[in-house]
Amino acid sequence: LQRARFGGSRGNFVSVDGPSQFSMSNSVSSLIHSDIQAACSTLGGWDEGKYFKEPECIESLKDLLRYLRRDDESHEIRRILGRIQVLKTDLLPLLKFYSDDSTLFDIVLRLLVDLTNPAILLYKEEVPIEKFSRNNYLEIISHLQSYKLAFTDSKVWIAITKKLETLLHRNWETRQEEDKDTIERILVLIRNIVHVPANPSEEKRTDDDVSIHDQVLWAMHLAHLEDLLLYISSSEDETDYCFHSLEILSLMLREQSPQVLASAAQARSTSEKEQDVKALLRARELELSRKKAQMQSKPSRHPRFGGTFTVKNMKSISDNALIVRDRVRLSQVDFDRDKNFRAKPKNKRPPLEESTSTRRSTLNIRLFLKGLCVDFLKWSYNPMMRTVKSFLQRERAQSHDESYYFWAMRFFMEFNRCNGFEVGLVSETIAKESFHYVQTQLEQYYEMMVTDKRLIHVWAKRLHIALKAYHELLRTLAAMDGCPDEKVKEAARALKGTLFYLPEYREIVLHLLLNFNDSVQTNSYLRDLVAMVHVYVKMLEQFTKKHSHMVVKSKKKPRSKPKPKARPPAGGAAGQGGQEDQEKLWLEVASGLSLALRGEEELPGDVVPYDSTLDNTEEEKKLDALSRIQTALKANLPARAVALLRASREVWPDQDMFGAEDSGNVPEGGPEFRALREIFCADIQHTAPPAATAEDVSAPPEEENASEDRGDEEREDDEEEEERAPMEQEFNFQDFISRFAKPKVIMVYCKLLSHYRTNPAESNRHVVRMLHRLSWDLKMSPLLYQASVFKSFQAILRDYRSLAATSISEDLRELARLATFVVRDFVETARDNKLAFVELLFWKSTKDAYEIKHGYGSSAKSAHSGKVTWTEEQEYELKALYDRYKDEVTPDKDTVDLILEHMMDDSKTRRMVVRQLKNLGLIPNTAKFSKGARAHCPWRAEEIEELRDLFTQYREATDTLRLIMDRMSHKRPKHSVVDKLIELQLVPNRKALRKKTSGRRGTATSSRKGTGGPRLMGLDSELDTTDSSSDDDAGRGAPSNETPGQEGTTTSGMSRKGPGGQRLVGLDSELDTTNSSSDDDAGCGDSEGVVARPAQNGRAGRPGPSRTSRRNPVVDVAA
């Protein structure tokens, strides 16, 4: 027995015998058809209400299995067996009357599993497009639906339940491989039956009526099969089948609403009756209003003659008024009649809504399913979700199995919230790790939608399932505020702090809105997305109102490193001005070269032609030598240039580029002088060291290199320190809402607004609330000045006027108020801005909305209102002062200081003056007048004494080095100050002078920090919700030898129960605010105040057996 895995399906027992003995043709031959009929006729027959098997029954069943193995791509044999209805006439009776025969039961079970395989798996999870294949696919689905109707017999389920119970009672020591296969086959058979899609057009069932799916569920209930499913879900010995049971539960409850099941009672409540009556009255009034409008549009009596009409201001050919026969309305004018029809591409067509819709079953079914959900929450939810999460993290599940995890999280948490809301029943999934896991899956699904275009619809459905789970997590978190237990409220506050503190959680809502794709994602996804955003924004608003000063972590934009500027070419590529400057510079250098070449000037002896520490090629070394010579020439250092030239010639004596040794006393015509001239004018494309100055050259090379190395080290340390330091800022709710004022977000909300008639009342309220925030709170109503939006407003106001005042729903009333406000505001704007009507054709940004209100170009004026401007008089004064004082430099004051003393405008700063001098072209760059630090001057005694005093004063500060350098009377480079402190033995090493962040232990902080959340100023206690056994938390909080009481973290009233993390004391069942088996919270928001504890007993949760690799699910919930 082998498994054929169709695209990640679970437990499909399709046996494969290798290449078949003969190949099937397109149509099954009459011989094979007759063999199939003969095999079916020898299975058995009925006699006096009882089914009797034939002696050749087992051999005939094996023949049918053999035929199914040899089926072709058209599945002809499977369709023949479906037409014969062998499952209903023979296989199920054999199962009922001969359930004690183990051999017969096993063969019949294998045949049932094969026949009931989902049609989508037979076609490798892709609905066929070709005509004949599509017809075969639909025929197989119709056979499956007839099979499902046959399984409404409770006796069949009694036989299956009895066999499954017998096998489950056996211990693992005595359970054979055949028994495990039989258990898995039974679970797969149950999965196949409940997976069969419904046929509403054929069943014609309404709400509160019994469908075929309900009949199957009731038959399973009569056999007490749900008790075995609950046992498998909660037992630690049956973890191999946890995904089977989870999948079966999801298929059993796929047509049910958690809210409807939670409200199910023995009799219908008065609220349900009132809602039904209101819905009927509203539908009746809408129908009567349409009929009334239709009757009013028609004339009261049919005239004998239609009459003729003339069109005003329009002449006919005879220059008379144009005569028409019928009146024409504006709504009847259509210019698209004569246009050619263009089919919309398939990838741009809107997706079809999901076929599975919720319905209200009959009362008995709802009560049965409600009891099943209550028992599952009480006994199975927490252990099963812990096991499933462990399998997912350890990759012991298949790629799409997290869809079932998300479905269970969403369904049972919503049911628990609507059915009394006991937090302890769902404590396993109320944790920071759950939010982090769902969020990472949301991001992964979106990335797969972008990369895997072939399965984009499948990834979109999985994204929708994960979104529902995230929405329910937020709603459950919001409901925890209403619990009477203070510890539950404190846990909710701590989780909210994490969600609002970290930027990843704040960005996800806006990210999903901006990346909505209406050609792939359905309107139901859009409604759930808007509802999730509404819940998150509402919680964030309430949180900020309670805590006026909330500090959050924000993403720090990476500082772009300045690119090295390309040096202007030294040769003919330069302009005319550049050539003239080079000629002048060469004339200045040439005189010094003559002296150096004659030997009248002493040459330095410590020059090195190239950097030998680099692993460069020979050509690169030559380029390095030429670059050093050219740099020395342009720095007007002729002696150094000559020394470098001769040192290079000694290394490469055979190269003509470095010239030959001069033999005469006139060096201007010698080979060395000519070589230096060529090197000076050459365009050397090589990274040269910066131009050396006389002061730099005078310094010893060792000191120069050491200074550069220290400077580079300090800069790297500073950059690393800035990257490590978290960027925190005070949170502003209005700034957060302003990020939603984008055209893409407005388009998404207005698309949902256009479906206001079919939207639930909650969705309409969510749309109104967000548009109200943007148009009223932010004063950005021009964002809604769009023709399609006004068309929706027109329909809303028409429906509002057509209904009676008592029949208008609250959501329609709010929509009408919003439409009235926006239209009135547009009319007022159009009085001043005549182009407002043209703006209706475009979606607008915040800049466009501002300019529509305040005039075009006003945004640019407001943006430049704070820019420093220089008048013509001030520029003339600056030029005159610079010409006067450019050569007057004193030891204490430079040119800029003298200019500032004599300027009439005292508001100008030194930086403004230097920048304006550069803009006017008076100075080449600003480095000349920067307050540079003295690098090579020796330390005086008073400077050393001042340094000691400053270090003693600020040694306990957060940034000691910065405070010392800011208060030094004589500025020096950072590396020089650090070296002096180490030399004076005030600090042991450079690390001791690094900036101390607020999250390090032993440092003072200005406010108390929550556990993984924002720093809440003025709060008295914090609740630690960190994971005590998470492997990824090691090293992010306190060291392992620190106690939880540090950093102001209150742990009173908390107790630890094993490796599962913290539990809240005082609840009927434990509220686990952490995930005991989470490994994926790395980087998900442990703030500096979090205490990290070492893991206990390894990973929490018992590792299940390795047999889950045998499991093979059907399509996931998305597919």
UniProtKB/TrEMBL annotation:
Compositional bias of kind Basic residues: 548-566
Subcellular location: Nucleus
Ranges of compositional bias, category Polar residues: 1040-1054
GO cellular component: a single term: nucleus
Compositionally biased spans, kind Acidic residues: 714-723, 1021-1032
Molecular-function annotations in GO: isomerase activity
Record has Endoplasmic reticulum as a keyword: no
PANTHER family, A to Z: PROTEIN TIMELESS HOMOLOG (PTHR22940:SF4), TIMEOUT/TIMELESS-2 (PTHR22940)
InterPro entries: Timeless, Timeless_N
Keywords: Cell cycle, Isomerase, Nucleus
Domain Timeless N-terminal: 50-311
Name of the protein: Putative dna topoisomerase i-interacting protein
Annotated spans, Disordered: 548-579, 690-727, 990-1119
